[in-house]
Amino acid sequence: MNKFYLSEIYIYPIKSLGGISVNECLIEKKGLQYDRRWVLIDKEGTFITQRKYPLLALLQVSIVEDKIIVSHKENPNNSTSFDILQHKAKLIPVAIWDDLTSGFEVNNLVSAWFSDYMNMPVKLVKMSEQEKRMVDPRYAMNNEIVSFADGYPCLLIGQSSLDNLNKKLEIPIYMDRFRPNFVFTGGEAHVEDSFKDFELSGVLFSAVKPCSRCVLITINQQTGIKSSEPLKTLSKYRTTNNKIMFGQNLIHQVSGIIHVGDELRTCLKFI
Predict the structure, then answer these.
(1) Is 75 in a helix, a strand, or coil?
(2) pLDDT (tens digit, 9 = 90+) per residue, 47-71?
(3) InterPro entries, per this entry (predicted)?
(4) 213 within 8 A of 246, measured Cβ to Cβ
(5) N or C: which end of the chain has fewer CB within 10 A?
(6) What is the residue range of 105's domain?
(7) pLDDT more than 70, % of the chain
(8) CATH code of 126's domain
(9) Can you give the pLDDT at residue 109?
(10) In 3-state terms, what secondary structure has residue 204?
(11) Radius of gyration over every alpha carbon of the chain, rounded to an integer in angstroms
Protein backbone atom coordinates (compact mmCIF):
# COMPACT_ATOMS: atom_id res chain seq x y z
CA MET A 1 0.00 0.00 0.00
CA ASN A 2 1.48 3.31 -1.08
CA LYS A 3 1.87 6.07 1.44
CA PHE A 4 1.50 9.67 0.35
CA TYR A 5 3.26 12.59 2.03
CA LEU A 6 2.83 16.31 1.53
CA SER A 7 6.08 17.61 0.05
CA GLU A 8 5.20 21.22 -0.82
CA ILE A 9 2.63 23.86 0.12
CA TYR A 10 2.09 27.00 -1.96
CA ILE A 11 -0.02 30.09 -1.55
CA TYR A 12 -0.66 32.75 -4.19
CA PRO A 13 -1.77 35.86 -2.29
CA ILE A 14 -2.38 37.89 -5.47
CA LYS A 15 -4.12 35.89 -8.16
CA SER A 16 -1.83 35.06 -11.13
CA LEU A 17 1.34 36.48 -9.55
CA GLY A 18 4.26 34.47 -8.20
CA GLY A 19 3.50 32.03 -5.40
CA ILE A 20 5.08 31.52 -2.00
CA SER A 21 6.39 28.19 -0.72
CA VAL A 22 5.57 27.66 2.97
CA ASN A 23 6.26 24.87 5.45
CA GLU A 24 2.87 25.13 7.11
CA CYS A 25 -0.34 27.06 6.59
CA LEU A 26 -3.68 27.61 8.23
CA ILE A 27 -6.61 26.52 6.10
CA GLU A 28 -9.71 28.67 6.41
CA LYS A 29 -13.16 28.37 4.87
CA LYS A 30 -12.07 29.98 1.59
CA GLY A 31 -8.84 28.00 1.34
CA LEU A 32 -5.30 28.46 2.61
CA GLN A 33 -4.74 31.67 4.54
CA TYR A 34 -3.91 34.60 2.23
CA ASP A 35 -4.33 32.45 -0.89
CA ARG A 36 -5.90 34.44 -3.76
CA ARG A 37 -7.31 37.03 -1.35
CA TRP A 38 -6.18 39.82 -3.71
CA VAL A 39 -6.76 40.22 -7.45
CA LEU A 40 -6.00 42.74 -10.18
CA ILE A 41 -8.99 44.06 -12.10
CA ASP A 42 -9.23 46.17 -15.25
CA LYS A 43 -11.32 49.30 -15.69
CA GLU A 44 -14.43 47.17 -16.29
CA GLY A 45 -13.91 45.36 -12.99
CA THR A 46 -12.90 42.07 -14.65
CA PHE A 47 -10.04 40.04 -13.21
CA ILE A 48 -6.81 39.83 -15.20
CA THR A 49 -4.39 36.91 -15.30
CA GLN A 50 -1.33 35.56 -17.06
CA ARG A 51 -3.60 33.97 -19.66
CA LYS A 52 -3.78 37.34 -21.40
CA TYR A 53 -0.91 39.16 -19.65
CA PRO A 54 2.10 36.80 -19.31
CA LEU A 55 4.22 39.62 -17.84
CA LEU A 56 2.39 39.05 -14.55
CA ALA A 57 4.58 35.95 -14.15
CA LEU A 58 7.54 38.25 -13.47
CA LEU A 59 5.95 39.73 -10.35
CA GLN A 60 6.91 37.89 -7.17
CA VAL A 61 4.91 38.17 -3.96
CA SER A 62 6.32 37.77 -0.46
CA ILE A 63 4.94 38.26 3.03
CA VAL A 64 7.16 39.92 5.61
CA GLU A 65 5.58 40.32 9.04
CA ASP A 66 2.28 42.07 8.28
CA LYS A 67 3.16 43.35 4.82
CA ILE A 68 2.63 42.07 1.30
CA ILE A 69 5.60 42.90 -0.92
CA VAL A 70 5.47 42.66 -4.71
CA SER A 71 8.74 42.90 -6.64
CA HIS A 72 9.93 42.33 -10.19
CA LYS A 73 11.85 39.05 -10.47
CA GLU A 74 14.48 40.59 -12.75
CA ASN A 75 14.66 43.92 -10.89
CA PRO A 76 13.83 43.43 -7.20
CA ASN A 77 14.26 47.15 -6.50
CA ASN A 78 11.15 47.75 -8.59
CA SER A 79 8.62 46.94 -5.91
CA THR A 80 5.55 47.99 -3.98
CA SER A 81 4.14 46.97 -0.62
CA PHE A 82 1.11 47.37 1.61
CA ASP A 83 -0.20 46.22 4.96
CA ILE A 84 -2.19 42.99 4.85
CA LEU A 85 -5.17 44.66 6.54
CA GLN A 86 -5.07 47.82 4.44
CA HIS A 87 -7.91 48.67 2.05
CA LYS A 88 -10.35 51.42 1.18
CA ALA A 89 -13.81 51.53 2.70
CA LYS A 90 -15.92 51.26 -0.46
CA LEU A 91 -16.85 47.86 -1.89
CA ILE A 92 -16.45 47.58 -5.66
CA PRO A 93 -17.66 44.83 -8.01
CA VAL A 94 -15.23 42.16 -9.23
CA ALA A 95 -15.98 39.71 -12.04
CA ILE A 96 -14.29 36.30 -11.83
CA TRP A 97 -15.40 34.19 -14.80
CA ASP A 98 -19.20 33.97 -14.46
CA ASP A 99 -19.20 35.07 -10.82
CA LEU A 100 -19.88 38.60 -9.73
CA THR A 101 -18.22 39.15 -6.39
CA SER A 102 -16.75 42.21 -4.67
CA GLY A 103 -13.79 43.60 -2.79
CA PHE A 104 -11.98 46.70 -1.60
CA GLU A 105 -9.26 48.52 -3.53
CA VAL A 106 -6.07 48.40 -1.45
CA ASN A 107 -4.97 51.98 -2.09
CA ASN A 108 -4.29 54.42 -4.92
CA LEU A 109 -0.49 54.15 -4.78
CA VAL A 110 -0.44 50.37 -5.15
CA SER A 111 -2.95 50.46 -8.00
CA ALA A 112 -0.84 53.15 -9.71
CA TRP A 113 2.29 50.97 -9.41
CA PHE A 114 0.51 48.04 -11.04
CA SER A 115 -1.04 50.32 -13.69
CA ASP A 116 2.40 51.62 -14.59
CA TYR A 117 3.75 48.08 -14.85
CA MET A 118 0.82 46.88 -16.94
CA ASN A 119 0.68 50.04 -19.05
CA MET A 120 -3.07 50.09 -18.51
CA PRO A 121 -5.38 51.17 -15.68
CA VAL A 122 -5.82 48.43 -13.09
CA LYS A 123 -6.75 48.20 -9.43
CA LEU A 124 -5.52 45.79 -6.78
CA VAL A 125 -8.54 44.56 -4.85
CA LYS A 126 -8.78 42.64 -1.58
CA MET A 127 -11.67 40.26 -0.93
CA SER A 128 -13.86 41.11 2.02
CA GLU A 129 -13.78 38.65 4.90
CA GLN A 130 -17.58 38.66 4.76
CA GLU A 131 -17.78 37.90 1.04
CA LYS A 132 -19.28 34.49 0.29
CA ARG A 133 -18.39 33.45 -3.25
CA MET A 134 -19.84 29.99 -3.68
CA VAL A 135 -18.16 26.91 -5.12
CA ASP A 136 -19.95 25.55 -8.20
CA PRO A 137 -23.06 23.85 -6.73
CA ARG A 138 -22.55 20.87 -9.06
CA TYR A 139 -19.45 19.97 -7.05
CA ALA A 140 -20.05 21.57 -3.66
CA MET A 141 -21.02 19.34 -0.75
CA ASN A 142 -21.92 21.80 1.99
CA ASN A 143 -22.22 25.27 0.42
CA GLU A 144 -18.44 25.74 0.38
CA ILE A 145 -17.03 29.17 -0.40
CA VAL A 146 -13.91 30.19 -2.30
CA SER A 147 -11.56 33.15 -2.63
CA PHE A 148 -10.62 34.80 -5.95
CA ALA A 149 -9.31 31.39 -7.12
CA ASP A 150 -10.70 30.14 -10.42
CA GLY A 151 -13.31 27.99 -8.73
CA TYR A 152 -12.13 25.80 -5.85
CA PRO A 153 -10.37 26.43 -2.53
CA CYS A 154 -7.33 24.19 -3.19
CA LEU A 155 -5.50 22.28 -5.93
CA LEU A 156 -3.54 19.04 -5.42
CA ILE A 157 -0.91 17.50 -7.73
CA GLY A 158 1.32 14.45 -7.28
CA GLN A 159 5.04 14.86 -7.87
CA SER A 160 4.93 11.63 -9.87
CA SER A 161 2.56 13.28 -12.34
CA LEU A 162 5.06 16.04 -13.09
CA ASP A 163 7.97 13.57 -13.21
CA ASN A 164 6.08 11.49 -15.76
CA LEU A 165 5.34 14.56 -17.88
CA ASN A 166 8.95 15.70 -17.79
CA LYS A 167 10.08 12.36 -19.19
CA LYS A 168 8.05 13.19 -22.30
CA LEU A 169 9.29 16.77 -22.70
CA GLU A 170 12.51 17.86 -24.39
CA ILE A 171 12.95 20.59 -21.76
CA PRO A 172 11.68 19.72 -18.25
CA ILE A 173 9.43 22.22 -16.51
CA TYR A 174 8.83 23.16 -12.89
CA MET A 175 5.71 22.50 -10.85
CA ASP A 176 5.06 26.24 -10.66
CA ARG A 177 3.52 26.09 -14.16
CA PHE A 178 0.50 24.34 -12.60
CA ARG A 179 0.13 26.57 -9.53
CA PRO A 180 -0.85 23.88 -7.02
CA ASN A 181 -1.51 24.47 -3.35
CA PHE A 182 -0.43 20.97 -2.36
CA VAL A 183 2.20 18.67 -3.88
CA PHE A 184 2.61 15.14 -2.56
CA THR A 185 5.03 12.26 -3.05
CA GLY A 186 4.22 8.59 -3.41
CA GLY A 187 2.23 6.50 -5.86
CA GLU A 188 2.24 6.36 -9.63
CA ALA A 189 1.66 9.25 -12.02
CA HIS A 190 -1.82 10.75 -11.71
CA VAL A 191 -2.80 8.61 -8.74
CA GLU A 192 -4.62 11.73 -7.56
CA ASP A 193 -7.20 10.99 -10.28
CA SER A 194 -8.43 8.17 -8.07
CA PHE A 195 -8.58 10.12 -4.81
CA LYS A 196 -11.97 10.63 -3.28
CA ASP A 197 -11.56 11.74 0.33
CA PHE A 198 -8.36 12.22 2.29
CA GLU A 199 -7.23 13.73 5.55
CA LEU A 200 -4.33 16.06 6.35
CA SER A 201 -3.67 17.04 9.97
CA GLY A 202 -7.25 16.30 10.88
CA VAL A 203 -8.71 18.32 7.99
CA LEU A 204 -10.92 16.31 5.64
CA PHE A 205 -10.56 17.07 1.93
CA SER A 206 -12.60 15.79 -1.00
CA ALA A 207 -11.30 15.62 -4.56
CA VAL A 208 -14.34 16.80 -6.49
CA LYS A 209 -13.18 17.63 -10.01
CA PRO A 210 -10.08 17.12 -12.16
CA CYS A 211 -8.44 20.44 -13.04
CA SER A 212 -8.74 21.38 -16.71
CA ARG A 213 -5.69 23.25 -17.92
CA CYS A 214 -5.35 26.28 -20.17
CA VAL A 215 -2.68 28.35 -21.89
CA LEU A 216 -1.37 29.59 -18.53
CA ILE A 217 0.71 26.44 -18.08
CA THR A 218 2.65 27.29 -21.26
CA ILE A 219 4.13 30.38 -19.57
CA ASN A 220 7.60 30.03 -18.11
CA GLN A 221 7.24 31.44 -14.59
CA GLN A 222 10.87 32.53 -14.51
CA THR A 223 10.89 34.43 -17.82
CA GLY A 224 7.25 35.17 -18.68
CA ILE A 225 7.79 33.61 -22.14
CA LYS A 226 5.04 31.48 -23.70
CA SER A 227 5.54 28.31 -25.73
CA SER A 228 3.41 25.40 -26.95
CA GLU A 229 4.47 23.12 -24.08
CA PRO A 230 3.42 21.38 -21.97
CA LEU A 231 -0.12 21.64 -23.43
CA LYS A 232 1.02 20.06 -26.69
CA THR A 233 2.41 16.97 -24.97
CA LEU A 234 -0.37 16.71 -22.37
CA SER A 235 -2.98 16.76 -25.15
CA LYS A 236 -1.64 13.40 -26.34
CA TYR A 237 -2.40 11.52 -23.13
CA ARG A 238 -4.36 13.66 -20.66
CA THR A 239 -7.41 14.72 -22.70
CA THR A 240 -10.93 14.01 -21.44
CA ASN A 241 -13.98 15.44 -23.22
CA ASN A 242 -11.69 17.77 -25.19
CA LYS A 243 -10.17 19.16 -21.98
CA ILE A 244 -6.62 18.62 -20.76
CA MET A 245 -6.60 17.46 -17.15
CA PHE A 246 -3.76 17.76 -14.64
CA GLY A 247 -4.34 17.78 -10.88
CA GLN A 248 -7.39 17.63 -8.64
CA ASN A 249 -9.60 20.44 -7.35
CA LEU A 250 -10.43 20.12 -3.66
CA ILE A 251 -13.02 21.22 -1.17
CA HIS A 252 -12.60 20.75 2.57
CA GLN A 253 -14.29 20.69 5.94
CA VAL A 254 -13.21 22.47 9.15
CA SER A 255 -10.07 24.51 9.67
CA GLY A 256 -6.61 23.44 10.75
CA ILE A 257 -2.90 23.86 10.17
CA ILE A 258 -1.41 21.83 7.32
CA HIS A 259 2.30 20.97 7.41
CA VAL A 260 4.86 19.79 4.86
CA GLY A 261 5.55 16.16 5.77
CA ASP A 262 1.95 15.38 6.73
CA GLU A 263 0.67 12.03 5.54
CA LEU A 264 -2.31 12.03 3.19
CA ARG A 265 -4.63 9.31 4.43
CA THR A 266 -6.75 8.53 1.45
CA CYS A 267 -9.92 6.82 0.35
CA LEU A 268 -9.63 5.78 -3.31
CA LYS A 269 -12.54 5.85 -5.73
CA PHE A 270 -13.58 2.58 -7.31
CA ILE A 271 -13.45 3.17 -11.07
Answers:
(1) strand
(2) 999 999 999 999 999 999 999 999 9
(3) MoCF_Sase_C, MOCOS_middle, Pyrv_Knase-like_insert_dom_sf
(4) yes
(5) N
(6) 4-268
(7) 98
(8) 2.40.33.20
(9) 98
(10) strand
(11) 18
